[in-house]
Amino acid sequence: MPQTAAKHARHSARKLVKDTWKAQANLSFFLGLMVLFVFVLPLSSVVEKHFSLYVDIGYSLMLISGIAIGWGMSWLFYLGAAAGLVGLIVRWLGWWYPGVERFREPSTLVAVLFLILLLLVRVFRKGPVSGSRLQGAVAVYLLMGILWAHAYVIFNRDHPNSFVANENTPPTVAGWTYFSFVTLTTVGYGDITPKVPGARMLAVGEAIAGQMYLAVMLARLVALQVAGSTENGGDTEKSDGG
């Protein structure tokens, strides 16, 4: 009997380590892809020559790796996988059927929204504050900027001249990503300014969401850390008393 219990404990420990490593590896890969495709590669001249292909490849890789993070989350994973699949199909069909391009941003926006939900489930669940949890929190913040960038593209396309820019308003989601992150972090350089109520509310909503997310996330991480320290302290006291 003791041997069976010990074997079961070793199996559970190995499974826990494997699952933890797998989750952290997936998150690290996903976060690295986001930083690479959103912030690093756009600075190269190669991207300028093949911009459309670069954007589609980048989003495809991020959607696939992001959805994979939610593996095993039952219904939420399947919904996210379905949204991601639709987003990928619509994005690549646009190369052969120009009429489909209008649905690229909305379908990608929905897929990114599901990615955020999948990551938030992992970030806010109970457990110790780990590297994978911190990476997930950072990934959610970056995804929020990408989410609103797609929203700006859709709004500006359906309501032309809703924004005033020192130069021309960005024609693609990559251009709106700059404005999105400037708004998300409440920096507000002023080179692009919303001038109609709907555009202003969209920008205000992003600024509020960005600040609230940071506050809530910090509070959650502190609470988890305190709870973990309390549990460890209680176990230590019990063992000392025994």
In a few lines, what is going on in this structure?
78% of the residues lie in helices and 2% in strands.
Characteristics of this structure?
242 residues; Helix Hairpins; two-stranded antiparallel ribbon; disordered C terminus
How is this structure best described in words?
With 242 residues, the chain is mainly α. Helices cover 78% and strands 2% of the residues. It has one domain: Helix Hairpins. It has 8 helices and 2 strands. It has a two-stranded antiparallel sheet. Helix 6 crosses helix 7 and helix 6 packs antiparallel against helix 8.
Task: Set down the secondary structure blueprint.
Elements lengths: L1 H39 L4 H5 L1 H19 L4 H20 L10 H21 L6 H28 L4 E3 L7 H12 L7 E3 L2 H45 L1
Helix pairs in contact: 1-3, 1-6, 3-4, 3-5, 4-5, 5-6, 6-7, 6-8
Give the low-confidence spans: 8-21, 235-242
Which fold name corresponds to the CATH topology?
Helix Hairpins
Biggest sheet architecture: 2 strands, antiparallel
- CATH classification, class level: Mainly Alpha
Percent of residues in beta strands: under 5%
Radius of gyration: 22 Å
Strand runs, count: 2
What do the pLDDT scores average to? 80
Annotation field: number of helices: 8
For the biggest β-sheet, the strand order reads 1-2
Structural class: mainly alpha
Rough outline: globular
Distance between the termini: 24 Å
Helix content: over 70%
Order of helical and strand elements? HHHHHHEHEH
CATH architecture: Orthogonal Bundle
Count of structural domains? 1
